[in-house]
Design goal:
Helix content is about 0%, strand content about 50%. The protein is built from no helices and ten strands.
Length: about 100
């Protein structure tokens, strides 16, 4: 696995989502209750960029059709049809920096 620098901790506010492209993957990074989570940023339904949606607690809602995922686990929470779960990535916090392993 390769470790990629995302940003400094100080550049994230609580509940904030950021889109980053690392290793050719579009990844959403979110800060929830002081912890960082990383999930695929592309909706498995129609390809929307999930960072343009909303985040309430750990529930991420797609901006196009309202599919909901748990940003901590990548699991689908709600949608009228079966969708794939989102990929999740390991987040590391070291020396005031946020990294993702891919």
């Amino acid at each position: 696995m390769t470790k990629f620098l995302v940003d400094k901790i100080e550049n994230f506010s609580e509940g904030q989502m950021k889109n980053v492209t690392l290793g050719g993957k579009e990844i959403l990074v979110a800060k929830i209750e002081g912890h960082f989570y990383a999930i695929s940023n592309i909706c498995s339904h129609a390809g929307a960029e999930l960072h343009e949606g909303t985040l309430e607690a750990n529930e991420l809602t797609c901006p196009w059709h309202g599919a909901k995922w748990d940003v901590k686990t990548g699991d689908l929470i709600w949608f009228p049809q079966k969708l794939n779960n989102q990929d999740i990535y390991t987040v590391l916090v070291e020396d005031q920096n946020v990294y993702i392993e891919i």
